[in-house]
Amino acid sequence: MKFIVTAKSFRVLGLITLLLSGQACKNILEEKVISAIGNDYINTPKGFEDATRASYAPLRSFYATQQGLTMTEFGTDLYATGSDGSYKGFHFYDTQLNSFVDILQGVWEELYRGINTCNAVIGRAPAATGITDVLKKQRVAEVKFLRAHYYFILVQQWGGVDLRLTETLGPTKKTSRATEADIYKAILADLESALPDLENKARSSDYGRATKAAAEHLLARVYLTKATSSAKAADDYAKAATYAQNVIANYGFKLLPDFASVFSQGAGEINDEVVFSVQYTSDPLTNAASAPLASSGGNTGGNNLHLLFGMQYDTQAGMVRDIAYDRPFRRLRPTTFALETVFKDRVNDSRYKKSFRDTWLSNNPGTFNTAFDKSKLTVTFKAGDTAIFIPGYEMTLAERAKKPYQVLVPSAYSETLFLPLLKFFDPLRPDKTYEPGSRDFLAFRLAETYLILAEAQLKLGKTTEATAAINTVRRRAAWPGKETAMEITPAAMDMEMIYQERGRELMGEQIRWMDLKRWGNLVERTKLYNPQAAVNVKETHNLRPIPQTQIDRTEKAADGSPGFAQNPGY
Q1: Rounded distance between C-alpha atoms, residue 177 and residue 162, angstroms
Q2: Is there a contact between 11 and 36 (Cβ–Cβ < 8 Å)?
Q3: I want to staple 139 with a disulfide (CB 3.0 to 4.6 A). Which of 52, 219, 226, 391 is the partner?
Q4: DSSP states of 354-421
């Protein structure tokens, strides 16, 4: 059984709308629209469960969405912009990135909606009846995990924000910015107090709920991030290492033998490597977008990542758009640095071949003029013939002329033609125009746990142990028989290895911008490896602009200055 959150409305004191969910068993949605719910509904067994489930819903406003991807992968050393789409200010770091951007407002509001729902569950739990103390503690622990998760996203993106740990019962203009140290203190307090009451297993019996393993992985990530923040402490790396080791040793997780199988759709989404995933389904009501993001076009419902990495294959010889190759929205394309340096080793490392699509089979047979491949004038295809091949190197004109298909070489890459990332494609959609995807988003997986451990140990001076941790990930990534060749020695274990290994393993998985920020090299590496962004990126961009709506809704200070300060430079 998968734990499915559905969209419902729920009123608290008639003033604050909380996003709540129903319950779906055997992956079948049973939607019951409830309106004018009394204030005491949350005190009932059903109401308390609904409120807990509602606390998970804002995860779907950030993970596997256009807005979440925009805020985590655009404008980094690994990705540049394609020819299509909006929000390119996040790539270019120009004046388009400002406090009025609607997706910034939408994500901000959704995260605080989630926080207030969590606050309601925690604050009202003592009065809830008809639920055992053990289950009540578990549910409170789950929402503490979620509240910490939401604040962790907020502090990484915006720095110190409004810290609210009790339910907001009515409209207020009194807000203020806490320090980063205060936010991290609250995050860690939530996670560490939740550990004893979360399910002590790798996978919840109601799959998708937070477990102790998920909380320990998040703790490892939080401590690793805090270690380079203004709130850093001497023992941050040691604690990150300890929590990562707990996840690796105590729950039975294991890396799948094949890197590609980690991203198998359907039954394969629930596997031994997944520590925590954000749940999606094929039901459009379940995946319905919330109002702030739906109105901005920021979320069409469902897992949207399948839309955002494709190239414009459907205008090429022998090809038309279909379900398998997806809609070519062309939002993100790999940088030259990503392809030629990070994924340079293709003899021993399988992740280049298994991360990117390099072959298209004709679904539109016939004879056509060639477009980008100047080695031949025409090509002829039967259905299923190779129509496009990307060799990944500058194949000579003579070599290309021998191929009965178009060959796209690096010198011909463009904002429309490039290597698409394969991880999120969704061939199970009902038709070729359908946008909401049904894949779960793998928010935490064991390979990242090993990489967290490797980085923490390296920072602690334990280079041999760090090398062993990173080699575990590298051996799994090897082509069969190349495992030994993939291992590195302690002499090669440094932060550049960490930077690149996280790129190879976690490409596109909504983490790179936060990685660069916490390493303190967002500006440096973006200038070096992303020509589009190099001109404008500066230290200001280590934080996002506070949404103007938040500033405008906050009561001004006594001297007339804004009560909620904007981040410097915006």
Answers
A1: 5
A2: yes
A3: 52
A4: HHB--EEE-SS-EEEE-SS-TT-SEEEE-TTSEEEE--SS---HHHHHTSSSEE--GGG--SSSSPPB
Lookup: tokens for 425: 């494609």
Q: What is d(CA 520, CA 518) in angstroms, rounded to the nearest whole number?
A: 5
Matching residue, tokens 């996840």: 247
Helix (H, G, I), strand (E, B) or coil at 81: strand
Residue 419 to residue 339: CA distance in whole angstroms? 9
Q: How many CA atoms, within 13 angstroms, populate the side-chain half-sphere of residue 20?
A: 26
Residue with tokens 């758009």: 321
How far is C-alpha 175 from the chain's CA centre?
28
Q: Which of 352, 349, 220, 354 is nearest to 275 (CA)?
A: 220
What are the tokens at 481?
A: 């028989």
pLDDT tens-digit profile of 391-432? 999 999 999 999 999 999 999 999 999 999 999 999 999 999
Mean pLDDT of the chain: 92
Q: Which amino acid is at 214?
A: A
Q: How far apart are CA 67 and CA 547, in angstroms?
A: 14
Distance CA 87, CA 423 (A): 22
Neighbours of 569 (CB within 10 A): 11
List the end-to-end C-alpha distance of the chain, in Å, as a whole number. Answer: 47
Question: Which tokens in the block code for residue 9?
Answer: 């409305």
| Strand-pair partners of 374 | none
pLDDT in tens, 30-39: 334 444 567 7
Residue 378 pairs with which residues in a beta bridge? 369
pTM over 0.85: yes
